[in-house]
Amino acid sequence: MDSTPSPSPPPSSSSAFDLVSRALGRYIPRGGAAAPAGSADAQGDRATPRRVPDNPAAGRQEQILGAVNLDRDLVITRCNLEAPVFAGLDAGAGRPFVDLLPPGDVPTVSRRLRQVVESGEAHVARIQRLRRGDGSELVVSMSILPAAAPEEGLTVSVIAMARRLHLYAAETAIGTSLDIGETAQSLAESLLAWGDVAAVDLDFAVWTGEGVTGKPQGRIRLRRAALVPDRVWPEGYMTPGDDLPGDASRLLAQAVLREDAPQTIVIPDRQAVERVFGSPRVVRALVPGDRSAGLACIPLVLDGAPPVVLGVAEVWRRADCPFRDSELFDLQELVARTAHHVDLARQHQREHTQVLALQRRLLPRAGGDTIEIASVDQPATPDSAGVGGDWVNSFPLPDGRTALVVGDVVGHGLGAAATMGQLSMEARALLSAGLAPDQVLEHLDETVTLLDDAESGLAAGYSALGSTCCIAIYDPVSHHVTLSSAGHLPPILVSPDGRAAPLAIRPHPGLGAEFALREPFDVYTIGVPPGSVLALYTDGLVEDPALSIDEGIDRLADAVATVHPWDALQQTARHVVSALAPAPQRDDVTLLLARMIGYRKGDTATWRLPARGDAPARARAEVSALLRQWRVRDGTRDNALLLVSELVTNAVRFATGPVTVRLIRAGQSLLCEVGDTGNGRPRLRRGDLLDDGGRGLSIVHRLTTRWGVRWTDTGKVVWAEVAR
Question: What gap in Å lies between CA 291 and CA 276, rounded to an integer?
């Protein structure tokens, strides 16, 4: 047959088998055409199976591509495996495809074949061994392609892995992930071309992301990172995730670090293996079976002075197939080319761990008596761009209110994490100092702008411009939430009757916007009756390529609408995230749920008094009557009366307008608040004996466990806490 392919019919009328077979025409040498399946040439002489020539491509082009068509029962219907490299594979029509597989691989490959038949989704490029009629094996890259019509079955395309081609393909595949396990698995699958079983054992420091340089060279604690093929292994044999016994780790370390230099070692047969390993426990842990007795150990070496061993790659094969020098050279070349990918994954894991530790420090603590808090923070998958700068936080403010903060810093990795930590801590400090949410956002906006202008930020090539933040403060007495947002997605409020909807917040540019785009941050005050639930989140939870962002927010609202007052809030938060979070996660997923409880009516009291000279006396009378009703002990009552008298006196003296007095019974303390319309900040100062001013705050300071000031739209509130 001429090697020039004939014109192809339209793709819609071609099966996967026909497409692959037509592609073979470009690679079949002249005179080497494929015969129809079932012919004498195609099936070969069954009595004398053909052997693979030592150099099937000598002097001519080598064909390495073949195809086998299967029906839905995984029985061969057609095949095109006529290149010399496929000689000995008994793939005649009517034979089960599993007859071409080593017995240990039959369950796994059969499951993958049936998955393609049922789902219609291709499974591409799996390293697989095929069994010839004489018992020898051929390593191929196998892809499983569904037929255009489900009833037509599927097509298995195979590429015989020539050694140099395999080295190139393996090096390309191994560097595609920053996950340590996936990187090791790719390396093990590539090593399978040289043996029956391949394993990768990595130093424990690689798994944890710790530094590997500067360690004593003989101290290697190994954990199994990858093992192929996928099959049931004998009891006691080390599988991925298992820590190798200490004597096994020491043995492998000593073997590959002879004379303080990493070296490849070869143990030719089972007797030598048992003699070298010595302990039956080590033999059970490291030897995969009776047939696989010959072993090649290749160290994964990180170049340096001195070189550092990251782990050991092990290739096992039958004793009657000893390793040739050329094969050992290929194995060492492959491992040497890909060891740096393992170290890159280690460095990524270290950064991942550091960012996670920072995020965990920012996670909300327990809410307290007036609010219930639940949060879920799922970082991005390790092989993505890295953990982002998403954070949620909630913390009680000194005056009895609770702050809820959610933010999303632009970017991933340590740069985003550092900015996240700085903004989070700054927001907490400013809120604790009594600033309103919009005032805090103004400071954060300035901070992001300064960080972007800083030489260190420019040198790092990182910018936090466009980061978002939403701050909400819950007042458990008035049952209101005051919030401001800088470009963040709107919170979702679930009312006690189960209705849920995003809050109507006017869009605002993110932090660090250009001067021309900057606008004052809006402040919203929303009533939240006891039993209401507020949901704060980041975009990783609601973004879906198949949906608009508004549809994603509506899905979240529907999910949190099912929260009932008797539901465990933390369990509900996990359920919402598991139902909505995309897989795989390419961005952090963060959710904060806050159930509003508030104070009971009998635990609070508020009085509004005119700013006159008799205001302190009226305040003392009202507070004294209430404290007797609350049965507060005399010492606490006297301190509270003196405290209220001093605060109201200062308010009348230095401010205009009405004075508001509020008393809260909170656990083991009394919280006294006095609000006025003044904008001056009371300051505690050290005065002389003859000074008339400043003594009131000194009295407040000595009577209370803590006190402070918070600012309102109409003035300020001075609050103080007295132990009961």
Answer: 18
Backbone angles phi, psi at 369, to 5 degrees: -80, -25
Specify the DSSP class assigned to residue 33: P
Q: Does the structure show a pLDDT above 90 at 473?
A: yes
Two structure tokens written together for 312: 């050991």
Stretch 687-698: mean pLDDT, rounded? 53
User: By the 8 A CB rule, do 564 and 357 touch?
Assistant: no
**φ, ψ for residue 490, nearest 5 deg:** -70, 140
Is residue 667 left, alpha or beta, with left meaning phi > 0 and alpha meaning psi from -120 to 50? left
**Do residues 467 and 419 touch, judged by C-beta distance below 8 A?**
yes
Question: 305, exposed or middle or buried, with CB in 10 Å at 0-12, 13-18, 19+?
Answer: exposed
Contact 673, 717 (CB under 8 A): yes
Q: Are the C-beta atoms of 444 and 423 separated by less than 8 Å?
A: yes
CA distance 253 to 219: 7
Return the structure tokens found at 598.
Answer: 């508030």
SS3 (DSSP) at 141? strand
Helix (H) or strand (E) holding 698: helix 695-703
> Taking all residues of the chain, what is their mean pLDDT, rounded to a whole number?
77
Which of 645, 644, 701, 709 shows the shortest CA–CA distance to 670?
644
DSSP states along 615-659: HHHHHHHHHHHHHHHTT--HHHHHHHHHHHHHHHHHHHHH--S-E
Strand partners, 58: none
Torsion of CA 508, 511, 517, 522, to 10 degrees: 40
357 three-state secondary structure = helix
Between the alpha carbon of residue 269 and those of residues 134, 198, 276, 320, 331, the distances in Å are 22, 16, 11, 8, 19
Tokens 């999910």 identify what position? 559
Could you report the per-residue pLDDT of 617-645, keeping only the tens digit for each? 999 999 999 999 988 888 888 888 888 88
> Do residues 541 and 580 touch, judged by C-beta distance below 8 A?
yes
Helix (H, G, I), strand (E, B) or coil at 154: strand
- For 495-620, strand residue ranges (E) read 500-502, 524-527, 533-537, 589-596, 604-609
What region, left, alpha or beta, does residue 512 occupy, with left being phi > 0 and alpha being psi -120 to 50 degrees?
left
Q: What are 514-531's pLDDT values in tens digits?
A: 665 678 899 999 999 998
Question: Sheet of 292-302: strands edge to edge?
Answer: 222-228, 197-203, 308-318, 292-302, 265-267
CA dist 648 and 618 (Å) reads 10
Q: What are phi and psi of 293, to 5 degrees?
A: -115, -35
This prediction's pTM: 0.58
**79 DSSP β-pair partners:** 68
Structure tokens at 635: 């010492």
- In one letter, which amino acid is 149? A
- Whether 195 contacts 107, CB under 8 Å: no
What the block records as the tokens of 458 is: 């420019």
Which residues have CB under 8 Å from 362's CB, separation 6+? 391, 392, 393, 420, 421, 424
d(CA 431, CA 653): 27
Q: Cα separation of 414 and 389, whole Å? A: 9
CA-nearest of 49, 123, 54, 42 to 83 is 42
**In one letter, which amino acid is 386?**
G
d(CA 186, CA 345): 13
Q: Which two tokens stand for residue 217?
A: 């060279």
